[in-house]
UniProtKB/TrEMBL annotation:
InterPro entries: ArsR-like_HTH, WH-like_DNA-bd_sf, WH_DNA-bd_sf. It comes from Kibdelosporangium aridum. This is ArsR family transcriptional regulator. Gene3D superfamilies: Winged helix-like DNA-binding domain superfamily/Winged helix DNA-binding domain.
Length: 177
């Protein structure tokens, strides 16, 4: 996925198509697109779905294996320092996992809105709070959960559509104290 053209090719292959058709759509050389299609097939992101005759040639038709791809930032984290930090800090590992799930859900919901015409009932609330130390952070989380807990219980037992509620408390990465 390191090559930016591969994302464009996957987008073009939401519907079955040949490398030549994708090349025309993207305005790129057929050989170049064919190379990237083969690489996408090799790693399982595209697969051959058939063939068609085009003049004297038989073209292979490919399609992306999924409608949406969310690439985990963990794929780029090959250095030992990040891996060790996640292993040593359970709360940080959980923050990263929650962020990945939220990113995946947002991408899938965006696709449902963009390609299925669905209206997505969603909301996001972001706030900043200043916490002096670990004790204050712990007290804040306890008080927050005491306030939100009854609301979650009140609405959590209903028969309606399920919604995810996410709370993440972390330092602002742009500010260093």
């Amino acid at each position: 996925m390191a090559h930016p053209m591969r994302l464009r090719i996957l987008a073009a292959l939401r519907e079955p198509g040949s490398a030549a058709a994708v090349a025309r759509e993207l305005g790129e050389p057929r050989q170049k697109v064919n190379y990237h299609v083969k690489e996408l097939e090799r790693v399982g992101l595209a697969h051959r779905v058939g063939e068609r005759r085009a003049g004297n040639l038989v073209e292979s038709l490919y399609q992306a294996t999924a409608a949406t791809y969310v690439v985990s930032p963990r794929l780029a984290w090959v250095d030992r320092a990040r891996i060790d930090a996640l292993a040593e800090q359970v709360a940080l590992e959980n923050l990263v996992a929650v962020g990945e799930r939220l990113q995946q859900a947002a991408a899938l919901l965006l696709d449902r809105a963009a390609f299925d015409g669905e209206k997505i009932a969603s909301a996001a609330v972001e706030a900043e709070v200043r916490l002096a130390d670990a004790a204050q952070r712990t007290a804040f989380l306890k008080e927050y959960m005491s306030a939100v807990g009854p609301i979650l219980k009140k609405y959590g037992d209903s028969q309606g559509d399920p919604y995810r509620v996410v709370l993440a408390v972390h330092p602002d990465p742009k500010e260093k104290s």
